[in-house]
Amino acid sequence: MADEKSYWPIPKDLGTLHDVIIRYAVRIQAVAAAKQEKTAEGLISHSALFTLHRIGIVTHRSIRSLCETGWTQVSPILIRTLLDVLASCYAIVSKYEDAEFMAFKFMCSYLIQAIRDPDTSDELRKHNQEQLDKMRQQLKREDIKRVDDFIANFKPLPYWFCPQFLSPGRIFKDLIPRLFDMYRQFSGSTHGSFIGSVLFSDSPDAPGIDPQENPARTRNAIVASSRLLLDISFARGQFDGIADLAEYKEIVKTYILPQKGK
User: Fold this and answer.
1) Biggest CA-to-CA distance, the chain
2) Would residue 103 count as lying in a domain?
3) How many distinct structural domains can be found in the chain?
4) How far apart are CA 238 and CA 40, in angstroms?
């Protein structure tokens, strides 16, 4: 832990919000895993969503750590990561009939690219091919032809979910419009620009390189991170049939919305 001079605990209400979302996310993850263990199927979609959900949980926790140790100003980078995770979740779950194919693309695109890379060693190429074949064997008959066509015609694209979805921004605009404004605020062109470099500093006119307390922007960061992890968890839970819309709305009403204007 940082020394006392560079440690600023978040306010109690923010701590409650942060922890409520963590508990919700961990419960969804655990229930989904338990449900999967009871089936004989090794669904690729489960592995993909488990991976994305875990990234979301640890990223949310790390944002709190950054804020409490004086590094709130770099939190937009991780918030953008959460936005990308949420976009990937929706790319997989938006059409149930396409979930296994999309999950295969998410899990295996890098394997195909590495296998075809002339600089990949023979040993690594063999290992990657074995992993790819293992993933393919988990698919049902109706998805195998689509995957075989995808492998045969594979070419690197800007995003793994192309051409089904053209960009993260398009996913937010079409499928998650309630968070589209947040996506635009934290898009790469914003948080990588001059304004983005001071976006989450309470003293934008006097930027420094040392940790400092940023109570106003810390609140913004924790609220944004909490909302995104909530939506990641809910999307995953809805797909697995274990998330309740009423509970989701109650969390938003009780813990998210009261933060507006603070």
Assistant:
1) 61
2) no
3) 1
4) 21
Look at residue 230 and tell me if it is in a domain: yes
> pTM here?
0.91
Q: What is the mean pLDDT of the chain?
A: 90
Residue 176 is assigned to a structural domain of this protein: yes
Half-sphere exposure of residue 230, counting CA atoms within 13 Å on the CB side? 24
223: containing domain? 9-96+159-259
Instruction: Assess if residue 120 is contained within a domain.
Output: no
Per-residue pLDDT tens over the stretch 178-224: 999 999 888 765 555 555 556 677 676 667 788 888 888 899 999 99
In this predicted structure, what is the pLDDT of residue 1? Answer: 45
H helices present in the chain, as ranges: 12-37, 44-68, 75-93, 99-116, 122-137, 141-152, 168-175, 180-185, 188-191, 194-197, 215-240, 245-251
Q: Looking at this protein, which amino acid is placed at residue 30?
A: A
